[in-house]
Amino acid sequence: MELERGPEPEGCLTAAIRIPVRIVVLVVVLPVRMVWDALSWTGRQLYRYLLAPLGRALGFLAMAVFVWPWVALWRYVVVPPVRLLYRWVLTPFGCGIAALVRWTGIALGWFGRTLIGIPARRLYRWVLTPLGHGIAALVRWTGIAFAWFVHYGIVVPAVWAYRWILTPVGHAVTWAVLGLGAVIGWLGAQTYRFLLKPLGMVIAALAWWLVACPFIGLWRYVLVPVGRALRVVGREIVDAVGVCWRIAGYISRAVGRGLKWLGWNLVGRPVRAAWRWSYAYVLAPAGRAAAEVGRGVRAALRSARVTVRETRREVWWALFGGQAQAEVREPVRARARTLASNTTVPEAAPEPEISPFGRNTAKQG
């Protein structure tokens, strides 16, 4: 069982490279991270307050313009006539066609059985069956004759030729090929032993000393140390980028919070205080004063209306005598008022208004 290896010890070169690399990377990464955070915040705000509402509005508009009219057209214009057409036209027509096809099939079946089936059965029984038996017997005897001819005219001569001609010739050719192969194999073995093998050893030695040894030395004493140094530098750069990205995030977040605090204390708080003061000391009193003025104006208009009505009635009596024709209008329900206050209460029970002309005069009007 092999022991687990711990982390490799760091040398002085690593410690000497790490701090300058991290400082340089922090200087390079900090503006990028701040710009990235600003763009991310801007994108989130745009999506939340502009793109998402705009998308919902466009979706609703698209549904209202392109979907709902077609749905309504399909549901209330196309479907009812099609349903009525299917129920009162297509269904009876289809039932009639089905009945016509069924009775036509019955008639065709009777016609086929009566005019075609019976003659066809008789033709098959008394004509085609004997003719088929005769043709089968002819084909059987023809096949027997052909098989006898093939056996004694082709197979037997072919077997004799294979046994007494082709087999001896094949054996002779086989022995000749084997002898030639043995001679060629012996020549090849001798050539390999005394020519190719020594030549290959010489070429291998030359390749080892002229190619492999310089390459191994270059790899072992040049490329490996340089690669290790580059690996250390690359690892430190990657670690520095990660650490500096996090540090830049903390710095960017702190800067953002500071800007938020400054904006709130320099702009937000004064604006909120001004709004509260203006609402408490300007808008609310102005609204209450406008409400009081509106109530006074409505009361004055109501009194003027009653006065004009009574004056018109008095003029009518003076000119024409008698009582004037009562004006047909909707009954007006007065809103009750609380004691010692001019504010109407919707929940209180309604009471008649107090008129300076008296109840009888109001009834005559």
UniProtKB/TrEMBL annotation:
It comes from the Bacteria. Residues 339-365 are annotated as: Disordered. The keyword Transmembrane helix applies. The chain crosses the membrane at residues 15-36, 57-77, 89-111, 123-139, 145-165, 172-189, 201-222. Keywords: Membrane, Transmembrane, Transmembrane helix. The keyword Acetylation does not apply. This is Uncharacterized protein.
